[in-house]
């Protein structure tokens, strides 16, 4: 394995993610929802999002958020190929993540100066990510693969590298503290805060309340 040289995540973006403690994972089906959704999250204290590339309007929604709600730290998820890397760079993404660990995508992100966190679930995934220069990794799917118990065991041989993880997949308000109390975790990813149904029904009040609830928990645990 090559010498560990972190280069896939800028210190500035790494700090923003760590300060946030929570990344709201979003699936937007209609462009009209972009601004009220971003504002609802901000009102609840969440300023960091992962906008998934799972719908045809994701890029357009991101452009609007970037322009109209610049306070948002704009991340993209489900980045599966090099063309998508270029797309999100053109939008002005702050960071991107993927469900798996593809060296080609990591390399493309680094080439464009895009902060990137690949998905990992095994020691092999971790070693590939480290070899490519990553120090912040998305632990996915977190709960179904064993949660914190699995992550602690799996990451133990690499503790000297000071890797940090973003668990996603099954995280919710009831198990968030299990992750957030660990020094391995920089932030948790959560789709429950503003799930697809809440966005589609324009339930901005519930989204704001969900955001306030998790931010309050983060404050109580970290500060």
Order of helices and strands: HEHEHEHEHEEHEHEHEHH
CATH fold naming? TIM Barrel
User: What does the radius of gyration come to?
Assistant: 16 Å
Q: Which regions contain 5 or more consecutive residues with pLDDT less than 50?
A: none
What oligomeric arrangement do these chains adopt? single chain
Tell me about the biggest sheet? 6 strands, parallel
Strand content: 15-25%
CATH class: Alpha Beta
Estimate the mean pLDDT confidence: 96
Give the strand order of the largest sheet, numbering strands 1, 2, ... along the chain: 5-4-3-2-1-9
CATH superfamily: Aldolase class I
* Distance separating the two termini: 37 Å
Question: How many distinct beta strands?
Answer: 9
The gist of it:
The chain is of the alpha/beta class. The protein has ten helices and nine strands. It has a single domain (11-216), classed as Alpha-Beta Barrel (TIM Barrel).
What's the layout of helices and strands?
Layout: H1 11-20, E1 22-26, H2 34-43, E2 48-52, H3 58-68, E3 73-77, H4 82-91, E4 95-97, H5 103-111, E5 115-117, E6 119-120, H6 123-131, E7 136-139, H7 147-155, E8 164-167, H8 176-180, E9 188-190, H9 196-200, H10 204-222
Parallel strand pairs: 1-2, 1-9, 2-3, 3-4, 4-5, 6-7, 7-8
């Amino acid at each position: 394995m090559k010498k560990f040289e972190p280069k896939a995540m800028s210190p500035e973006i790494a700090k923003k993610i760590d300060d946030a403690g929570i990344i709201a994972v979003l699936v937007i089906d209609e462009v009209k929802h972009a601004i009220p959704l971003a504002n609802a999250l901000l009102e609840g204290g969440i300023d960091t999002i992962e906008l998934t590339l799972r719908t045809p309007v994701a890029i357009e929604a991101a452009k609007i958020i970037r322009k109209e709600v610049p306070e948002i730290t704009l991340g993209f998820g489900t980045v599966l190929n090099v063309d998508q890397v270029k797309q999100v760079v053109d939008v002005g993404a702050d960071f991107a993540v993927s469900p798996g660990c593809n060296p080609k995508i990591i390399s493309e992100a680094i080439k464009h100066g895009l902060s990137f966190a690949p998905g990992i679930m095994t020691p092999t995934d971790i070693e590939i990510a480290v070899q490519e220069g990553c120090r912040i990794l998305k632990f996915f799917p977190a709960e179904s693969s064993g949660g914190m118990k699995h992550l602690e065991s799996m990451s133990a041989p690499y503790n000297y590298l000071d890797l940090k993880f973003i668990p996603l997949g099954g995280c919710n308000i009831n198990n968030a503290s299990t992750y957030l109390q660990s020094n391995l975790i920089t932030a948790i990813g959560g789709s429950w805060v503003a799930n697809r149904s809440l966005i589609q029904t324009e339930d901005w009040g519930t989204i704001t309340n969900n955001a306030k609830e998790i931010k309050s928990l983060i404050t109580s645990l970290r500060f």
